[in-house]
């Protein structure tokens, strides 16, 4: 094994049996132990692929791998490695035939990115460079990339389609733009390369089994995990950032998408990947929900109280942001199936199961 490859006890060696299993092929999920990656692993497996996770667990828990195994009824392979580590990445790709990479590994906290822009560039952008170089060495030519609606900056028009102007309003957003540009160069640098950058809107919820879900470290920045902590009594109240936005009830509107719907969008992208050069596609529901819509749905579905207080607007926020998801329907044959009630119910079920 290469120096620093850091395979751990979760799956110390690559399973040679994977080559002989009845599978459409191996999908390597960088950041696969995270909130979104774990849900994608389930859907990828259900579609007949073999998911293999690669993660350094900097923002996720090792127990996710066991819980995924329980959910899928079979052991899940996970390589503990940092995408920035050339030796580890070379070892990972050198050991098996990967059909495609779903690249989720990245840091995503906007506030932290403002404090530590170099860390975000190093982890997200340089990490992607190292990953692509390792893929090049073994001829892996397909990638689905976790991009974000943050690439649209402050919305200029609604709904937001893929031709909306791009801008970075924080260092995290800059990393997503930088990586999308890097992927443009990568697909042009060799034959038969295929990339789909999926621009997620606001993923929330959890798997219906309540075995996997969102477990942010510390006090969350995002709305849904904050609502969950308030409902659990771990925080006294939700601060609603602005009650005077030009929206139907004065609070900020976003396009919340159930993480299982989001995961299924990745399977649809894998199925269409070979017909793409580098395409960017929104994954959202197309429906806006306000902060108070979320709070009220949460209370109604879960019988829980979410005390809240209107606070000043948060710097950098927009009144409303929601997707035009029609390209995903045309190009991938995908549309979101689950609604806000499903999202708040499943987020709460997962939180309750955590004890
Ligand atoms: P997450 O923090 O739960 O998952 C990210 C995973 O990547 C974690 O398991 C982490 O340990 C791993 N990771 C980070 N840096 C790594 C590195 N250098 N090497 C190996 N592993 C590394 O976050 P998530 O919500 O699942 O997000 C997944 C991806 O989707 C990220 O790229 C994020 O930017 C993107 N995204 C998320 C959202 C959202 O609201 N959750 C929205 C748009 C885009
Ligand atoms: N909100 C509150 N109180 C909170 C947290 C959030 O009122 O404690 C409000 C926000 O003002 C906003 C809405 O809830 O109106 C959603 O906020 P989030 O922080 O959950 O999500 P954002 O849409 O603001 O942004 C996040 C990331 C972006 C990313 C986007 C889509 O910060 O970088 O999700 O993925 F682009």
List the main descriptive attributes of the protein structure presented here.
alpha/beta, globular, 7-stranded parallel β-sheet, binds uridine-5'-diphosphate-4-deoxy-4-fluoro-alpha-D-galactose, Rossmann fold, binds nicotinamide-adenine-dinucleotide, 11 helices, 3-stranded mixed β-sheet, disordered N terminus, 14 strands, single chain, 355 residues
What fraction, in percent, of the residue positions are helical?
25-40%
What is the succession of H and E elements? EHEHEHEHHEHEEHEEEHEEHEEHH
The CATH C-level name of the domain at 16-205 and 257-285 and 324-337 is Alpha Beta
State mean pLDDT (0 to 100 scale). 93
Unreliable stretches covering 5 or more consecutive residues:
1-20
Q: Remind me, CATH topology of the domain at 16-205 and 257-285 and 324-337?
A: Rossmann fold
- Strand order of the biggest β-sheet: 3-2-1-4-5-6-11
Cofactors, ions, other ligands = nicotinamide-adenine-dinucleotide, uridine-5'-diphosphate-4-deoxy-4-fluoro-alpha-D-galactose
CATH superfamily of the domain at 16-205 and 257-285 and 324-337: NAD(P)-binding Rossmann-like Domain
Separate helix tally: 11
Largest sheet: 7 strands, parallel
Head-to-tail CA distance between termini = 39 Å
The structure class reads alpha/beta
List how many beta strands DSSP finds: 14
Map the helices and strands.
Blueprint: E1 26-30, H1 35-46, E2 50-55, H2 63-72, E3 77-80, H3 86-94, E4 98-103, H4 110-115, H5 117-138, E5 142-148, H6 171-188, E6 194-200, E7 202-204, H7 223-231, E8 238-241, E9 253-254, E10 256-258, H8 259-272, E11 278-283, E12 289-290, H9 291-302, E13 308-311, E14 320-321, H10 326-332, H11 340-353
Parallel strand pairs: 1-2, 1-4, 2-3, 4-5, 5-6, 6-11, 7-10, 8-13, 9-14
Antiparallel strand pairs: 9-12
Helix pairs in contact: 1-2, 1-8, 3-5, 5-6, 9-11
Bound molecules: nicotinamide-adenine-dinucleotide (NAD) and uridine-5'-diphosphate-4-deoxy-4-fluoro-alpha-D-galactose.
The site of nicotinamide-adenine-dinucleotide has 28 residues, from α1, α5, β5 and β7.
């Amino acid at each position: 094994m290469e120096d620093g490859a850091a395979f751990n006890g979760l799956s110390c060696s690559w399973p040679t049996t994977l080559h002989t299993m009845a599978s459409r092929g191996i999908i390597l999920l960088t950041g696969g132990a995270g909130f979104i990656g774990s849900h994608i692993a389930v859907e990828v497996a259900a579609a007949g692929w073999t998911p293999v996770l690669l993660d350094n667990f900097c923002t996720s828990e090792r127990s996710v791998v066991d819980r995924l195994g329980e959910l899928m009824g079979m052991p899940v392979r996970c390589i503990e490695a940092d995408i920035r580590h050339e030796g580890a990445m070379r070892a990972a790709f050198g050991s098996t035939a990967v059909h495609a990479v779903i690249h989720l590994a990245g840091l995503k906290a906007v506030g932290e990115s403002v404090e530590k822009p170099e860390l975000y560039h190093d982890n997200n952008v340089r990490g992607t460079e190292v990953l692509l170089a390792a893929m090049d060495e073994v001829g892996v030519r397909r990638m689905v990339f976790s991009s974000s609606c943050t690439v649209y900056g402050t919305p200029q028009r609604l709904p937001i389609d893929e031709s909306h102007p791009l801008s970075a309003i924080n260092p995290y957003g800059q990393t997503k733009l930088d990586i999308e540009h890097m992927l443009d160069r990568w697909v042009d640098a060799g034959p038969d390369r295929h990339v789909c950058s999926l621009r997620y809107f606001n993923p929330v919820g959890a798997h219906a089994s309540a075995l996997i879900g969102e477990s942010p470290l510390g006090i969350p920045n995002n709305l849904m995990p904050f609502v969950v902590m308030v409902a659990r009594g771990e925080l006294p109240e939700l601060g609603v950032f602005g009650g005077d936005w030009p929206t139907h009830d004065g609070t900020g509107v976003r396009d919340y998408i159930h993480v299982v719907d989001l995961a299924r969008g990745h399977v649809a992208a894998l199925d269409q990947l070979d017909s793409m050069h580098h395409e960017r596609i929104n994954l959202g529901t197309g429906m806006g929900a306000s902060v108070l819509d979320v709070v009220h749905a949460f209370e109604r579905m879960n019988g829980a109280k979410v005390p809240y207080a209107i606070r000043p607007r948060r710097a950098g926020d927009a009144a409303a942001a929601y997707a035009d998801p029609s390209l995903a329907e045309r190009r991938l044959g995908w549309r979101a199936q689950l609604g806000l009630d499903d999202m708040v119910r499943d987020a709460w079920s997962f939180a309750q199961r955590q004890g």
